[in-house]
Amino acid sequence: MNKIINIGVMGCAAIAKRSVIPAILALPECFKLVAVASRNVDKAKEFADRFGCEAVAGYDTLLQRQDIEAIYMPLPTGFHKKWLNEALSKGKHVYAEKSIAMNYIDADQMVENAKQFDVALMEGFMFQYHSQHQVVFEILKSGEIGEVRHFASKFGFPHLNPVISGMIIRLVAVHCWTLRLCCSICSFYSQEIHSK
Question: Which of these is catalytic: 17, 98, 115, 154?
Answer without folding.
Answer: 98
